[in-house]
User: What shape does this take?
Amino acid sequence: MRHFLFFVLLISSLFVSQVSLAQDQGSDFEYQLGGRLHLDYNHSKLNGDTDESEWQARRLWLEGSITWKEDWLFKLQQKLGEVGGGDQEDAYIRYLGWGDKAQLTLGKHYEPFGLEAQTSGNNILMLQASAISRTFTAGRQPGISLQGSYDTGFNYGVGLFQDETQDREIALSGRVGQSWSQSPKDLFFVGLGYSHRANETHMVALQSVVVVDALHLQTEYFDGQKLGADSSGYYLQTGWMFTGESRTYRNGVLSGLTPDSPSGALELVARYDKGDGNWSDVELGNTDASGITLGLNWYLNPKFRLAANHSIAERKNSDDDGSETRLRMQILF
Assistant: This one.
C-alpha cells in the first residue's frame, strides 16, 4: 500500500510540477505551497563487494511560505520521505523590511559558513554534497542571523546558532564574499567563512567560483578541528553545459537552471575531493580519503531533472576503496 500511495503522489506531482499549489497576491498576504521529490537508486560497493542496492525516496518534502506586507517571510519545510521522515528543514521567520542589504532571520536555517552547504539540494551539481563539505559544515541549525548583499557584489552573513550535533552548544558562524561580473554569462567570486564552536573548535573556509559562458568551476578549502583532531580538506568541481546555457550564482550560491530549449539542457559534471570527510556514500565512513565523481544532468524544465553520478574513492594509508552509482529523478511541485 505504501508503494501504491508513493506512485500516486509521483504521478500527481508530474501534473503540478509547473505551478505552486497555492498562491494569493490580492491582499497583504502572499502564500505558496509546494514540495520536492528526489527518487534515487543507489548501488554502492566496499572493496568490490556490494553493500547497498536500493530505490529510495531520498527527499520527499512539503514546503510552504507566507509573506506579509512584503516585510515578513514565514517559511516551513517538512520531510515526509524515507530519509528523515517527520523532521523539519527550514522553519524560520525573516524580516525583509530593510531590503537586500540586511535581512534578519530567526529559526532553523542555514548557518552562513560554507558555500555548497548553503546551496539547495535541488541545485547542487552532484547528487550528493562533497564528503569534505558535509564534514565541516553544520547545514541548518536553530539560531538567529543577519545576512545581506550589495549592488557592488559584496555579501555577508553572521549568526549565533544552537549546534544540534554538539548537545545544542552555541556556535558563532560568519561568511563574507565578493563577486565581479561583466555580463550575465561570466562571474568571479571569492569568499571566506569562519565558525567557532564547542570545545574551542575553530573552522575556516576559503571559497571561489568562476563562470565563463557554459563552463563553471567551484571550489572550497576547509581547515579546522573535526573528527577529534586537526583536519583539512578541499574539493574542486566543474560543469559544462552541452546546450550552451550559463550557470548563475547569487551571493556565491548556485541557483536553479532554466533550459533555453524545449528539449531541455544537458550538463556534464566532475568533482575531485581530498581530505578528512564523510565518505559514507562510498562506504568508507568518516576518514581521510580522496575520490572522483563524474555525472550527467538533464534538466527537462526548471521543475524536472534526471541525473546520474558515479563515484570512486580510496582511503589514505589503506587498501580500502569504495564506489557508488546513483540515479535520480527530481521533481519540484
About this structure: The chain is about 5% helix and 60% strand. The longest strand covers residues 49-68.
